[in-house]
Amino acid sequence: xxxxxxxxxxxxxxxxxARAVEQRIQADGLETIRFSFPDQHGILRxxxxxxxxxxxxxxxxxxxPSSLLMKDTAHRxxxxxxxxxxxxxxxxxxxxxxxxxxxxxxxxxxxxWAHATGWMLCDLYFRDGRKVPFATRHxxxxxxxxxxxxxxxxxxxxxxxxxxxxxxxxxxxxxxAGQPAIAPDVSxxxxxxxxxxxxxxxxxxxxxxxxxxxxxxLGLGLHSxxxxxxxxxxxxxxxxAEGIQSADDMVLFRSAVKQVCRRHGYHASFMCRPRLPDxxxxxxxxxxxxxxxxxxxxxxxPDNSAAPLSETGLFWLGGLLEHAAAxxxxxxxTINGYKRYRPFSLAPDRAIxxxxxxxxxxxxxxxxxxPASRIENRVGEPAANPYLYLASQVIVGLDGLxxxxxxxxxxxxxxxxxxxxxxxxxxxxxxxxxHSSVFRTAMxxxxxxxxxEIKKSEIKRYELEVSxxxxxxxxxxx
Length: 478
Fold this sequence. Notes:
The protein is of the alpha+beta class and 478 residues long.
């Protein structure tokens, strides 16, 4: 009996999908298959196998070193893998022992930009068949399972901003290597500030059309492509999806955009606020609602014209607000992302909600009998791990439902209404998460301690770096 069969790691749906994938790979003459898993940062890692090796992957999985889960954003292994008992408490990863990538055949795609290449997501397991507890796809699925037990499905829609520039110098000289390496040199694709103008769109149409064809070729639910306010800033909007689908789509979307752009002489960055002149920060706005499993109805639709949301929607909204500070580690996991939280910027700076107001953290868009009634959380950055972002919303939303948390009154002046401020740094967000009983109960002490240790390593490296600001400020003065 194979590893996957022995431990029952596939559902009947996945087993059926595996048979269909095998037939399609043969019929389409695919030559290689990329097997990827989303790491703790939402970055895809994995291996590429020749097509003839598919049978082995579908029976025994694919081994990868467990140290991949112990790395920060510079790809440095920051949690010891050689001590007798590292801080994760898991002896299974000692010495960078292997863990197993188990393919999820339901995620299979053919990559339109790569020759005869298939692709699929994987889930991580130990050799004894147990789930790797720090694998973020498992964490998201576990949160969604608890939502299912409550009688709901999570419905989400993505609005993702990013910077699309021309690649001038990829910085591939030997002296440019490092952890992290020197960033590439780029030039603008449009000069900005002509928000939603057709002229600027037309300047980018050649590369945007290439991206569109590839994204649609992957079967992702692309709805629109838009010119954003800042220089070289664009936005792509996706149709609503159920459950984990939005997270799966987001990791593939980001990876696809970066790969396709690079092949055509462009550079795409989902960094929140790149160090470019007159830049505008990018956000990831997460639209969300609940579907009642028994009826298929939207649980957020208001009961009357005077109500902003249903009672269920208001309690969910209250949960999002009450735990906003701790949840920012999941929606805004980079040091750079906190440079976006500033007044009068169309980005939030406090935990507050309002009706169709783009300055608040939680924008309610609803009407009686409107099946598209929803909450738009505007707090996220496009670099967020989508599995943790979605899981965090479900965890705090469920807490709001359980405790019938009131969101209070809406704000007409989002930057003037008194409300708890969002963390202004990643360090403050990490501190809030460390003290969050809601997230510790839902995700486990082990995962929270693990993730905050990685984040503290990034913060420490940042604090030891001498910035250009410090050099200008102090070098000549003192």
